[in-house]
């Protein structure tokens, strides 16, 4: 790719960034880093949601192979559903395989980092009580004492600005400060950094909103400050900076409630949550929907799959209901996938609610409780009238997941090539990094390097 191999690769994962944002002048610092010929549209895998895309970027494999087909997971054996809690031991992600190849590696704020073998790593891990109430902010880090040193210098990681109705640029600034400290202290050869700020405006307000355009400028300024730090570092001459984004946004105005449809069809059961609300009763439900932005995995008993399909087909905002052949077509034919997979129309998105009256919402519905809810809840970005977060799904202005809005891919820095193809498959990012760094790993990439 270049006359000289890069001695260091920095990956900036700027969520929600699109090529048009860079080329229209909204992100001048990123545009200055990445020359015209080194910019591309990034083709995300389906579903274009956080964990499936992150695993594809970091492994070079598709969801059908790495198995991360959603942000959530349904455990068929134990009849439980949860978000963000899948075991990470089976993954061979680039920062781990590069470490085995002899490089010093780092990664910040990707999903499922606890226990990673990266030399320097950080992910939020607050200390909670038995009811998931946060007792103290904390982060899991490698090495063990790294977070204590960061907290002494920058204060606790601002979790309240990382997600929820108070989400803002403060958490992104903290992550980039921590990344600077990692470079100063541990000098990683590969450093992968999650930059979340655009996600909030994209989800809350949508792709064409003024709020998103303003957020692009804020994120670009933060990235620009970090790039200035890199340029002053003695290793800048051997550095290749990879700018990626995981997905782009749609404007949406149609929330879809598949669990309500399944309940009306007599397939989903509820029970008293102990506080006067209706809790999902998974053991006695014959079908339920694990929602995830514009994609929903529907898990159903074998004898009611057709009934579930009938209940979901034709709902306003639903474009397709995929069966076995459809899952193969969309690249999610994996045991972790639902028996059916619903794809929203461009203006639609899926919400997990199964109750018909907000008075019957479960106790956690109005809280920011990402693990208790059996589905991703973007309404957590809005303050509620009766609790911390709203129950008004009509507030949500943006969504993603259909994989038909490209993200961004670009290469810049002294050790980066000056051109890339016009379109880049997300599966080529990991092999391209190994090529840049001139290392061999055992990972079975599905695509060659650029």
**CATH fold-level name of the largest domain:** Alkaline Phosphatase, subunit A
Categorize the overall geometry.
globular
Distance between the termini: 8 Å
CATH architectural grouping of the largest domain: 3-Layer(aba) Sandwich
Please give the share of residues in helix.
Answer: 25-40%
CATH classification, class level of the largest domain: Alpha Beta
**Strand segment count:** 23
Give the total of domains.
2
Overall structural class, as computed from helix and strand content, comes to alpha/beta
Radius of gyration: 21 Å
Largest sheet: 9 strands, mixed
Average pLDDT score: 94
Spatial arrangement of strands, main beta sheet:
9-6-5-10-1-11-22-2-23
Unreliable runs: none
User: What is the CATH superfamily label of the largest domain?
Assistant: Alkaline Phosphatase, subunit A
Beta-strand content bin = 15-25%
Keywords: Isomerase
InterPro entries: Alkaline_phosphatase_core_sf (IPR017850), Phosphodiest/P_Trfase (IPR002591)
GO molecular function: hydrolase activity; isomerase activity
Protein name: Isopentenyl-diphosphate delta isomerase
Give a written overview of the molecule.
This protein has 450 residues and is an alpha/beta fold. The chain has two domains: 8-249 and 402-437, 3-Layer(aba) Sandwich (Alkaline Phosphatase, subunit A), CATH 3.40.720; 254-399, no CATH class. The chain has 13 helices and 23 strands. It has helices spanning 19-23, 28-33, 50-59, 63-66, 94-100, 146-154, 169-186, 197-205, 210-231, 258-264, 305-312, 324-330, 429-437; strands at 8-14, 39-43, 72-75, 80-83, 105-108, 120-124, 127-128, 134-136, 139-142, 190-195, 239-244, 250-251, 254-256, 270-272, 278-280, 287-292, 295-300, 318-322, 340-344, 348-350, 398-399, 407-412, 423-425. The protein has a nine-stranded mixed sheet, with helices on both faces. It has a four-stranded antiparallel sheet with strand order 16-17-19-18. Helix 7 runs parallel beside helix 9 (210-231) and helix 8 (197-205) runs antiparallel to helix 9. The protein is globular. The N and C termini lie close together (8 Å).
